[in-house]
Amino acid sequence: MTTDDVSPGEFWFYEKHVPTAGIMLKVGELLACRRSRYQTIQLFDTADYGRVMTLDNLIMLTERDEFSYHEMLTHVPLLLHPQPRQVLVVGGGDGGVLREVIKHGTVERAVQVEIDREVVDVCREFFPWAAETYDNPRVELVIDDALKYIKTVRNEFDLVIVDSTDPVGPAIDLFGSPFYSDVYDALTADGLMTCQIDSPFYGSRRIGMIMDTLRDIFHDAGLYLTQVPSYPSGVWGLGIASKSRKNFHEPDKVRYDTLSGTLRYYNPDVHRGSFLLPEYLRRVVYRTGK
């Protein structure tokens, strides 16, 4: 694209994924721009992706493709656990993960620990699902540092979902061994954790390091993939770790049947297929070959 392709008066958002590549979105109306204690929050309209929220100029979600990220981060572990009742969400201030969690009738309590209240407030205002989700009686919102909160709970949660920003700024310690060890302690005996990790294309080295860390702490860990077109490379890596099980491939089909009409991306075939990794990534995740 050259400067000749941009008409006078047009505004474009550009996120640089690496020094030589990124994504451009044509911006319509700027809906919100707020500076919180932790980060700059922007929300704007686009022609192709609908409403977009950025934190420190990085895309966190868009209306058009958020479902593929939120459904896979949530339903993969929830349909693997035999009876998930207590769920902890770390981060996820947009409410998308919580929206998916409370679709499960077995879940009695969903606690979200979000460090930045401004993110929650912006999303309640501009994303209808957020307002509805946070008003659900099974949802408990805690505005606090998850690194501190996780140390206060032991053997309490059946599932911990880490929906953090990338490992920079306030989220950097959510990708380290001390935090994952605290998550392990917070889980029940058959508990599971899922977390967003990175782009397999741009961040395979980081993915390999995190997977090594998870296997050092948990009984087993695996990587699975989802498509998020607005994220770097369009494919995103999600980690899963367990205190007791080794097979992550077979979801509970009976409980899936009660959800199927509410989902747009997840299904049991996608669940199984998401763990089938291309060779270059399999070598990084499982340290095979050269």
Overview of this protein structure:
Strand 2 and strand 3 (40-46) form a beta hairpin. The protein has helices at 66-78, 96-101, 117-126, 128-134, 146-149, 177-186, 204-217, 253-257, 268-273, 279-286; strands at 11-18, 21-35, 40-46, 50-55, 58-62, 86-91, 109-114, 139-143, 157-163, 187-198, 220-227, 235-242. It contains ten helices and twelve strands. 29% of the residues lie in helices and 32% in strands. The model is unreliable at 1-6 (pLDDT under 50). It starts with 10 loop residues before the first strand and ends with a helix. With 290 residues, the chain is of the alpha/beta class. Strands 8-7-6-9-10-12-11 form a seven-stranded mixed sheet, sandwiched between helices. 42% of the residues are buried.
Quick recap:
29% of the residues lie in helices and 32% in strands. With 290 residues, the chain is α/β, with parallel strands linked by helices. It has two domains: 3-62, Spermidine Synthase, Chain: A, domain 2, CATH 2.30.140; 66-286, 3-Layer(aba) Sandwich (Rossmann fold).
CATH class of the largest domain: Alpha Beta
Number of domains: 2
Count helical runs.
10
Structural class: alpha/beta
Strand content: 25-35%
Helix content: 25-40%
Q: How far is it from the N-terminal to the C-terminal residue, by CA?
A: 37 Å
Q: Could you name the ranges where pLDDT drops below 50 across 5 or more consecutive residues?
A: 1-6
Rg, nearest Å: 19 Å
CATH architecture identity of the largest domain? 3-Layer(aba) Sandwich
What order do the SSEs take from the amino end to the carboxyl end, as H and E?
EEEEEHEHEHHEHEHEHEEHHH
DSSP strand tally: 12
Mean pLDDT, all residues: 92
- Order of strands, main sheet, comes to 8-7-6-9-10-12-11
CATH topology of the largest domain: Rossmann fold
